[in-house]
């Protein structure tokens, strides 16, 4: 996360008894690989700050630590054998409950930014753009259909890409993707921060920020080398 952008987050009014919730999900990230968890090999000042000012769960574990099924367990609260997705290229079943649908029942507005990888299908509407960029955009045709988005209302996400630079997101009902310049973790974080700063709905917000890193290919900006 770029420090200058992170410092721009404004205070958001919170209705009494219903705080705004920001859920940050990193991919292939072991639980102990954080400074506050005692790992001397990494520097994670922002996660350390979140832990110091909030609550930590040092005995939590993933009951199905593999990609799509693991995400299904996280977002549905179900064990892997009963989750909405059970294979790597499955889709989030439209009738299945999720954190988004449950919190909507309790008055929340829900938003999702970043990597979804819970809805890889081959029959969705492809981008319409053609020409010199056709080869570039052709690899990003996996647009998650609205009914396979786990009930999230605001959407700026992508499927299985694992490209850490010059990636894309699909915004809400857009058929064509929007390019994200530079390091995609910075780009989607900036989108999420801008959304929080402009959020003016009366409902409390539940927002997921889902980041590719440290998933392979484990490429990083030069400033982290």
**Residue windows where pLDDT falls under 50 for at least 5 positions:** none
Structural class: alpha/beta
User: How much strand?
Assistant: 15-25%
Outline, from the CA principal axes? globular
The major sheet is characterized as: 6 strands, mixed
The CATH architecture can be given as: 3-Layer(aba) Sandwich
| CATH structural class | Alpha Beta
In CATH, the homologous superfamily goes by the name Alkaline Phosphatase, subunit A
What series of H and E elements makes up the topology?
Answer: HEHHHEHEEEHE
Mean pLDDT: 84
- What topology, given as strand order, has the largest sheet? 1-6-2-3-4-5
Using the coordinates shown, work out and report the CATH topology.
Answer: Alkaline Phosphatase, subunit A
SS summary, helix count: 6
Helix content: 10-25%
- Give the number of domains: 1
Radius of gyration: 18 Å
The number of strands is 6
N-to-C CA distance: 15 Å
């Amino acid at each position: 996360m770029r420090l200058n952008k992170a410092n721009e987050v404004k205070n958001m009014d919170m209705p009494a008894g219903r705080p705004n919730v920001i859920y940050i999900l990193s991919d292939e990230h072991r639980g102990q690989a954080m400074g506050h968890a005692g790992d001397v090999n990494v520097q994670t000042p922002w996660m350390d700050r979140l832990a110091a000012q909030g609550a930590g769960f040092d005995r939590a574990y993933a009951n199905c630590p593999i990609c799509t099924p693991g995400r299904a367990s996280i977002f549905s609260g179900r064990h892997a054998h009963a989750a909405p997705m059970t294979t790597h290229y499955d889709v989030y079943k439209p009738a299945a409950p999720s954190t988004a649908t449950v919190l909507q029942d309790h008055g929340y507005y829900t938003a999702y930014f970043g990597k979804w990888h819970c809805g890889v299908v081959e029959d969705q509407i492809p981008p319409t753009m053609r020409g010199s960029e056709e080869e570039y955009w052709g690899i990003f045709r996996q647009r998650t259909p609205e009914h396979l988005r786990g009930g999230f209302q605001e959407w700026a996400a992508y499927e299985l890409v694992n490209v850490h630079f010059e990636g894309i997101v699909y915004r809400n009902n857009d058929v064509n993707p929007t390019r994200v310049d530079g390091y995609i973790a910075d780009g989607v974080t900036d989108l999420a921060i801008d959304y929080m700063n402009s959020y003016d709905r009366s409902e409390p917000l539940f927002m997921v920020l889902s980041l590719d890193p440290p998933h392979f290919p484990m490429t990083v900006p030069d400033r982290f080398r």
